[in-house]
Amino acid sequence: MQRIGVFVCWCGTNIAATVDVKAVAEALGKEPGVVFATDYQYMCSQAGQDMIRDAIQEHNLGGVVICSCSPRMHETTFRKTAEKAGLNPYMVEIANIREQCSWIHKDMPTATEKAIILGRAAIAKVHLNAPLTAGESPVTKRALVIGGGIAGIQTALDIADAGFPVDIVEKKPTIGGKMTQIDKTFPTLDCAACILTPKMVEAAQNENIRIFSYSEVDSVKGFVGNFHATIRRKARYVKEDVCTGCGLCTEKCPQKKVPNEFNLGLDNRRAIYIPFAQAVPKVATIDPNYCTMLKSGKCGVCAKVCTAGAIDYKQKDELIEEDYGAIVVATGFNPIKLDHYDEYAYSQSPDVVTSLEFERLMNAAGPTAGTLLRPSDGEHPHTLVFVQCVGSRETRDCGKPYCSKICCMYTAKHAMLCREKYPDTEVYVFYIDVRTPGKNFDEFYRRAVEEYGVHYIKGMVGKVVPENGKLKVQASDLLSNEQIHIDADMVILAAAIEPDESARSIATMLTASMDTNDFFTEAHPKLRPVESPTAGIFLSGVCQGPKDIPETVAQAGAAASKVIGLLAKDHLMCNPCVAEANELMCNGCSSCEKVCPYGAITYSDKEFPGPNRTRVLRRVASVNPAVCQGCGACTVACPSGAMDLKGFSTSQIMAEVDAICK
Amino acid sequence: MQKNQELELTATIKRISGVNPRLCMKCGKCSATCPAFDEMDYHPHQFVDLVDKGQIEKLMNSKGIWNCLSCFACLERCPRMVEPAKLIEAVRLAVIRQQGQNHLKPEQIPDFLDENLPQQAITSAFRKYAK
Lengths: 662, 131
What we know:
The complex is a heterodimer of chains A (662) and B (131).
Chain A: E1 4-9, H1 21-29, E2 34-40, H2 46-58, E3 63-68, H3 71-84, E4 92-96, H4 98-102, H5 108-128, E5 136-138, E6 143-146, H6 150-161, E7 166-169, E8 184-185, E9 190-191, H7 192-205, E10 209-212, E11 215-223, E12 226-233, H8 248-252, E13 258-259, E14 268-269, E15 272-273, E16 285-286, H9 292-296, H10 301-305, E17 318-324, E18 326-329, E19 333-335, E20 352-354, H11 355-362, E21 383-390, H12 407-421, E22 426-431, H13 441-450, E23 455-458, E24 461-467, E25 470-477, E26 482-488, E27 490-495, E28 497-499, H14 503-510, E29 537-539, H15 549-567, E30 571-573, E31 579-581, H16 591-595, E32 601-609, E33 615-623, H17 633-637, E34 643-645, H18 650-661
Parallel strand pairs in A: 1-2, 1-3, 3-4, 6-7, 6-18, 7-10, 18-29, 20-27, 21-22, 21-27, 22-23
Antiparallel strand pairs in A: 5-30, 8-9, 11-12, 12-17, 13-14, 15-16, 19-28, 24-25, 25-26, 31-34, 32-33
Helix pairs in contact in A: 1-5, 2-3, 5-18, 6-7, 6-15, 12-13
Chain B: H1 3-17, H2 29-33, H3 44-53, H4 56-60, H5 73-77, H6 84-99, H7 109-112, H8 119-129
Helix pairs in contact in B: 1-6, 3-6
């Protein structure tokens, strides 16, 4: 029997306010094998850890049970403490009496009773723990960045700067993301293209960075330090290394009626196109949905005019296989679709636009060359109404329950730019709350009101009705308790933002967790904000939650530093809690091999002693401990009970269940 | 009205309507969308606010509650699913109950008809007060 020490943590009042920690320590002290039991205010503090170390040495403990927060929080901390005291770190067990007890119960006697039971289960398990030693696995010194917006570019640049090779996979024909569509950036009003395009060029020219544009990640296998990805380079029907980006084909293509997604459908492009003049790579792409040559085999104009001979109508998707040590998700966002917002007449009038569309209408490189014109008749608008929180902070199904965070600031920017360029306009902004936490943000918003005379009205727009070339806006002014009516020329809707639709499938591929809004979850909301709970997966930009450009760039740098920290290591300590096959019990059925998601199990023929001193050959399973991630799927699948997980063996789990049911 | 009485009444209004006024984020979209706004002394967002504060008496004495058309635009467009129209209905019911069971009977309807009264108001009044 082990000599066990029990340490009950108060976690300040987090545990102690609901669980009688003294009673727990006293009760667990009487359990078989327990030779020492105590409680302390902060077990994870230096003083608490010293207490554990001293007790291990003084009482010659062979096992330690810590009743505290979730093992996800501090298991590593306490294992290190035990190791320093000369105990095998895997002789430490955590009873989670915070997340699974004090935080979810209100009644002290009940919570205390449950805490004792949880502690008892951990003690029962420690009795069966065996010392484990972690092996090592190598690290592939290359990173994959999924998404080539400002988040992905910045992360890639920072990783490349540290000397590691990085691949950016971007599904669009060019990198740059949403920032390429933006005109100016708040609160300094510097031109988005002027600060972004140099970074795009830098990424393209950096010898450590490879850009796979118009490509998608097909599959990812493996684990931290040893990922294996398949990247699909979609056929763009243009040889990327031959095309010079002269743009002649995009002028001569007879198919002129293709909605231009870069300008959000506000104008048309050709079937062969370069999204915009500063695209990286500056290579043409043929849209197979509209190209008459690809659809019916008749045309071929682009091939005729291309002096470089870059057009290849027979190009096929190409699959690239590559190994990576770390993966950064930077999949970004999109504005939500406004189909369900009939009250704002978005689908009824072209003069009702989203803020991103307005951004294109104000952009010098946009469809109107930067002159603000009403989409319906090309006239100069005089009265503009901005509506904030369209779909944000909304619990209806069509909306999003969260605040999209960036809309208050870009609306103030739009309103201000509008008044500056066109002083003859009247600009109204309807707001529920103006949220401007950020350096120089509130000053910026106040400037819109005080210097530029933008009318900020506390209230919401109830409906917009197109009538005789005007937009009749009916809204409330809550401060004067009036309903107001405005004849507007344009209505601009600050649509909520949502994660890109590719995020969910990528999360599944990476086994990275997401929240109910499809934002990636961080390993810890405060202390590990750029890491996914899945080892080796890092988060950058809006895929983790709404954020503006400065925040995105900061997070991108943080994600890069975490990746660099990982890639700088030659070896990673493996998890020793891996599966092991009992060869004497294995019947060679292959069930475990089929369920193993990591390909860690192989079968081989081995000689075993048979009856009458003979030798028999039997097919048995063996686990590669460097590849096994300890998920336990094989232990469930094995029909003969030959598979067991070290550190979580069947006998240990049954002992825990017995202790709970006692 | 006594404090307890008003508390009790507030609880009744919340129960009959099934509305939780605390869900309101005070955006004012209900009042922005209301076609009868100008006919009311208290406006839809104020109904929600007054119920939240437990000031039901003000509402019960208000003529505005009878001007609600029950068109449900506020309910349809509320981003937080507060359903102000249901609160107004509940207040109306509370007033009626107080007045002593003076329910609407089909034979009385012709007396109420006048050309300015929207038909929807008659239909919904009958639906609500015929029981």
